[in-house]
Amino acid sequence: MEIYGASHSSEKILWDRTMINVIFTRIRKTGIYGGEHMDWLNIFGLIMIAVIMIPNIIFAIRCKEGFENKWSNKFIEVAEQMGRFGCFGFMIINIPGTWFGWWSDEAFAIYLIVDTILVVLYCAIWIICFKKSSIFRALALSVIPSVLFLFSGIMSRSILLLIAAILFAPSHILLSYKNAK
């Protein structure tokens, strides 16, 4: 793959698999990521969760009536909450024997890139649709985190995150849709 620099010079930078491996191996083995001594902590998952919580916290403070459930189904609500807290926890904490990590540096790179895009998209929709209650907003703001958790569980090979995401996704999307109608 060829990536051209932002400068107007004709010089180009070629990135190959070796370069990607070097970059992401360094990221994975730094103290920031946790390296081999802190495999239980996913600092990138923590950052993703923290960022997606920012617009939710701002919304909860400014629009106290915004999180009111208009549709009540205790089973779905309990499933959603169990899935939500499971997803939050297992995005951050890796339980040995249930988390097997990324199978390659490329998989780790894809995980970071896709998760970042999903988080930015989530925050952008919050910003654009902050005051506009609609089915689009409800579905977008429920589908995006569902995809984020499912994708993260698959890419990091986290069994518990996948289970929590499978519990969370349909219940969260259904509740969001029913409350937006």
Shape: globular
- Percent helix: 55-70%
Question: Structural class, from secondary structure content?
Answer: mainly alpha
Overall pLDDT, averaged?
A: 84
| Number of structurally distinct domains | 1
Provide the low-confidence segments as ranges.
Answer: 1-15
Strand line-up in the sheet with most strands:
1-2
The main pleated sheet reads as: 2 strands, antiparallel
Output the helix-strand order.
EEHHHHHH
Share of β-strand residues? under 5%
- Tally the helices: 6
CA-based gyration radius:
19 Å
Count of β-strands: 2
Q: Report the span from N to C terminus.
A: 46 Å
What's this entry about, in short?
The protein contains six helices and two strands. With 181 residues, it is mainly alpha-helical. Strands 1-2 form a two-stranded antiparallel ribbon.
Please outline the helices and strands.
Blueprint: E1 2-4, E2 12-14, H1 17-29, H2 43-62, H3 74-92, H4 105-128, H5 135-155, H6 159-180
Antiparallel strand pairs: 1-2
Helix pairs in contact: 1-4, 2-3, 2-4, 3-6, 4-5, 5-6
Detailed description of the structure:
Strands 1-2 form a two-stranded antiparallel ribbon. It is built from six helices and two strands, in the order ββαααααα. It is mostly helical. Helix 2 packs parallel to helix 4 and helix 5 runs antiparallel to helix 6 (159-180).
